[in-house]
Amino acid sequence: MQTTLEPQTSFEVTDKGFYGHFGGAFIPEMLYPNVEELRQNYLKIIADPAFQAEFWQLLEDYVGRPTPLFLAKRLSEKIGATVYLKREDLCHTGAHKVNNTIGQILVAQRLGKKRIVAETGAGQHGVATATVCALMGLECIVYMGSIDMERQKPNVDRMRMLGATVVPATSGSQTLKDATNEAMRHWINNPVDTHYIIGSVVGPHPYPDMVARFQSVISQETRKQLFAKVGRENPDYVVACVGGGSNAAGMFYHYLNEPSVRLVAAEAAGQGVTSGYSAATTALGKPGVLHGSRTILMQTEDGQVTEPYSISAGLDYPGIGPLHAHLFESGRGDFYAITDDEALQAGFQLSKLEGIIPALESAHALAALEKMNLKPSDIVVVCLSGRGDKDLNTYSKHL
Amino acid sequence: MTLTQNRITDLFAQKSERLLNVYFTAGFPHLDDTLTILRGLQAAGVDLVEIGMPYSDPVADGETIQKSNGKALDNGMSLKTLFVQLADCREEISVPILLMGYINPVLQFGVENFCKKCQEVGVDGVILPDLPLDLFLDEYAETFREYGILNVHLITPQTSESRIRLIDDESDGFIYMVSSASITGSTKGISESMQTYFERIQAMNLQNPRLIGFGINDHETFDTASQYANGAIVGSAFIRHLDENGTSPESIHEFVQTIRA
C-alpha cells in the first residue's frame, strides 16, 4: 500500500506552523535547535521511499493494519442511522497511538537519536512508545504524573516490562500536563542525542503536523473501505473524541477539504461543563499558549493553566491541538461536550449491542451520536480509538 | 535594532565588568515581599534585578523556581497585583528592573497593556523564554519599542553561530547566555566544555554585552562566568536563600556578599 501523506490544501499548516491563528513554535531557545532540526527534516524523511516502505510494512505486519471498518448493525438500529466503527482498538497495544510512535521512531533513527523521551497520561502513549523502543532497541524514558502512575498501574508495569524507565512527574498537579512539562525539561537537558515523541497533535510545530500525518492512515483507509462497502468514499459525518486530538486528526485528515463531510469532535465534559470538574476545552477555554503552540486552553483570567478533569485519563488535558482549535474557530468542526455519565452509558451500550468494550475515550465519541440529530439516511463513521480493557476498573464501579 | 536608551543601556554604558543580576519570584516567600526584596537587593549593591512573573507551567525552570512559582500563585500573585506593588517603586528604586516569565500570562494581560504598564511603573526590560525571536519580531517588537521596553533574548551552547549573529543584531540591552544545556537550578559548577563555549562566544565580539545565567550559585561560579562575560545572573540560589533565611536586608546583603566576595 502506498500513501499520499500529502498535506490537504486549505487546512494545510503554514511554513511557520500555523493553522489559522493557532499553532507556531513557542519554545525556549534551549529547544530551538532540536525543534528546528526536526522541522527542516521531517518532510524529507517522511517522503523518502525507504522510510515509506518501512513505515507501511510495520503498520501492516506489526500494528495489524488496515484495521477493519465495521458496520455496527444493532447500534445503527438504536441510533437511527448507519454507523460504521473504524476499529483502531484492534491495533497492536490496543489503540491508535502506535501509528504515531512507529512513524516517529523511524524519524528519530534517521536523525541519529539514541534515546527517546515521552510523556503519558493514562499510559497508552507511554506503552506505544515503549513498544516501538523495544522493537528498535532504543533507550526509552517515559514521564508520567505520579497520580496517574497510581491510577494506571497496569500500564506502568507494561512499560517497565517493555524495558522503559518510567519517571514520576511530581511537579504541579502530577498529571499529564506536568508529565509533558517534565518531558520537555528532559529534552532541554539532553538536546543532542534525544528525540521527544509527543503523543498527540500538540506541541510546537512541526509536531502537530507530523503526528497528524502519521495518524492520517485512519481516514485514508476509511475512504477506501467505505467505498468498497457503500460505493462512496465520503460519509455524512466522521466522529472522534478529542483530548489533544490525535485520533480525531487522523479520522478527519482526508476529509478536511470535503465540505459534505461534517467533522464531529467529542470533548470530555467531566461532571458537567460548568461543574468545575471538566475538560471541555473549547467550551471553557480561551486562546493562549500551551506546550509550545498557540491554541485554545483552559486557564484562569490571569493566564495560569487550570487543571482539567475527566473520567477518561486520555481526555484529561487542558488544551487541544492547534488544528482542532482552527476547526472550532472556523466552524469546520462540530464540538460536543460529553459528560462522564454519558460516556459510561455509551460504553455499556456498545458492549451489549456489538460485543465491543470501548476505551472510555472512544465512548465519548459514541455518546456524541445521541446528540447529533441524525437522519436514517445518514452514514456515520466513528473512530473507535482504543479498547476498554484498561478501563475495566472504572466501568466495574458503575455496573 | 535601534538602541533604546533606558536604565539597562545606561548601566552597561557605565559598567562592563562583574555585573550581578539577581532573580527572585514575585510573591515568594510571601505575597507582599516584592518591595522588601527589591530594597534589600538595591541596598546590597546588585546591578540589575529580575523579577519572576509566576506561571503554572514554567518549562525552562528547575525544581527550586518551579516551587517558588507554585507558592507565589498560591499566595495570590498575578501580573495585576505585581504592577500594583511596583506602582511607586521608582520613588526609591533606581536599579534596572526586568520582568522574567512565560508568554501566556502576558498574552492574557494583553501585550500592549503589559508594555504600557511596564513603562508606567518603570520596568526596563523583559525576558520571555517561550516567546521565540521570529514570533517576537513578527508580532510584538514594534509594541515593545513603542513603550521603550527591551526584550532580552537567550542563547545556549547549541545555538548556531549564524543564529547568534541574528540574535545579536536584534538585541538591545544584553544577551542572556544560558550556561549549559539545562533548566535553571543546576548545581554542577562550571565545566571545561562550558568554558570552551564561553570562550567561543567571547571570541565572536558581539555588539551586545552578555550576562551568563543558569547554574551560577556561588562566588566561584560567579567569578568564572564574569571572566568570560560582563557578569552573571543568580536565580535559584537566591530563592533557596530567601526560603531558608528570609527577606531581611541583612540576610539579602549577606547573600550578595557571598556571591561577590
TrEMBL record, chain A:
<keyword id="KW-0456">Lyase</keyword>
<dbReference type="InterPro" id="IPR023026">
    <property type="entry name" value="Trp_synth_beta/beta-like"/>
</dbReference>
<protein>
    <recommendedName>
        <fullName>Tryptophan synthase beta chain</fullName>
        <ecNumber>4.2.1.20</ecNumber>
    </recommendedName>
</protein>
<feature type="modified residue" description="N6-(pyridoxal phosphate)lysine">
    <location>
        <position position="97"/>
    </location>
</feature>
<dbReference type="GO" id="GO:0004834">
    <property type="term" value="F:tryptophan synthase activity"/>
</dbReference>
<comment type="similarity">
    <text>Belongs to the TrpB family.</text>
</comment>
<keyword id="KW-0822">Tryptophan biosynthesis</keyword>
<comment type="function">
    <text>The beta subunit is responsible for the synthesis of L-tryptophan from indole and L-serine.</text>
</comment>
<comment type="pathway">
    <text>Amino-acid biosynthesis; L-tryptophan biosynthesis; L-tryptophan from chorismate: step 5/5.</text>
</comment>
<feature type="domain" description="Tryptophan synthase beta chain-like PALP">
    <location>
        <begin position="64"/>
        <end position="386"/>
    </location>
</feature>
<dbReference type="GO" id="GO:0005737">
    <property type="term" value="C:cytoplasm"/>
</dbReference>
<dbReference type="InterPro" id="IPR036052">
    <property type="entry name" value="TrpB-like_PALP_sf"/>
</dbReference>
<dbReference type="InterPro" id="IPR001926">
    <property type="entry name" value="TrpB-like_PALP"/>
</dbReference>
<keyword id="KW-0028">Amino-acid biosynthesis</keyword>
<dbReference type="InterPro" id="IPR006654">
    <property type="entry name" value="Trp_synth_beta"/>
</dbReference>
<dbReference type="Pfam" id="PF00291">
    <property type="entry name" value="PALP"/>
</dbReference>
<comment type="subunit">
    <text>Tetramer of two alpha and two beta chains.</text>
</comment>
<dbReference type="InterPro" id="IPR006653">
    <property type="entry name" value="Trp_synth_b_CS"/>
</dbReference>
<keyword id="KW-0663">Pyridoxal phosphate</keyword>
<keyword id="KW-0057">Aromatic amino acid biosynthesis</keyword>
UniProtKB/TrEMBL annotation, chain B:
<comment type="pathway">
    <text>Amino-acid biosynthesis; L-tryptophan biosynthesis; L-tryptophan from chorismate: step 5/5.</text>
</comment>
<keyword id="KW-0456">Lyase</keyword>
<keyword id="KW-0028">Amino-acid biosynthesis</keyword>
<comment type="subunit">
    <text>Tetramer of two alpha and two beta chains.</text>
</comment>
<feature type="active site" description="Proton acceptor">
    <location>
        <position position="50"/>
    </location>
</feature>
<dbReference type="GO" id="GO:0004834">
    <property type="term" value="F:tryptophan synthase activity"/>
</dbReference>
<dbReference type="InterPro" id="IPR002028">
    <property type="entry name" value="Trp_synthase_suA"/>
</dbReference>
<keyword id="KW-0822">Tryptophan biosynthesis</keyword>
<dbReference type="Pfam" id="PF00290">
    <property type="entry name" value="Trp_syntA"/>
</dbReference>
<dbReference type="InterPro" id="IPR018204">
    <property type="entry name" value="Trp_synthase_alpha_AS"/>
</dbReference>
<dbReference type="InterPro" id="IPR013785">
    <property type="entry name" value="Aldolase_TIM"/>
</dbReference>
<keyword id="KW-0057">Aromatic amino acid biosynthesis</keyword>
<feature type="active site" description="Proton acceptor">
    <location>
        <position position="61"/>
    </location>
</feature>
<comment type="similarity">
    <text>Belongs to the TrpA family.</text>
</comment>
<dbReference type="InterPro" id="IPR011060">
    <property type="entry name" value="RibuloseP-bd_barrel"/>
</dbReference>
<comment type="function">
    <text>The alpha subunit is responsible for the aldol cleavage of indoleglycerol phosphate to indole and glyceraldehyde 3-phosphate.</text>
</comment>
<protein>
    <recommendedName>
        <fullName>Tryptophan synthase alpha chain</fullName>
        <ecNumber>4.2.1.20</ecNumber>
    </recommendedName>
</protein>
<dbReference type="GO" id="GO:0005829">
    <property type="term" value="C:cytosol"/>
</dbReference>
